[in-house]
Amino acid sequence: MSCDFLARAVPGVQKLSPYVPGKPVDELARELNLDPVGIVKLASNENPLGPSPKALEAIRAELAELTRYPDGNGFELKRKLAARCGVQPAQVTLGNGSNDILDLVARAFLAPGLNAVFSQYAFAVYPIATQAVGAEGKVVPAQGYGHDLEAMLAAIDANTRVVFIANPNNPTGTWFGPQALAEFLARVPGNVLVVLDEAYIEYAEGDELPDGLNYLAQYPNLLVSRTFSKAYGLASLRVGYGVSSAQVADVLNRVRQPFNVNSLALAAACAALDDADYLAASRRVNDAGMAQLEQGFRALGLSWIPSRGNFIAVDFGRDAAPINRALLQDGVIVRPVAGYGMPTFLRVSIGTEQENARFLTALTKVLARG
Ligand SMILES: Cc1ncc(COP(=O)(O)O)c(C=O)c1O
Question: What's any GO biological process attached to this entry (predicted)?
Answer without folding.
Answer: L-histidine biosynthetic process
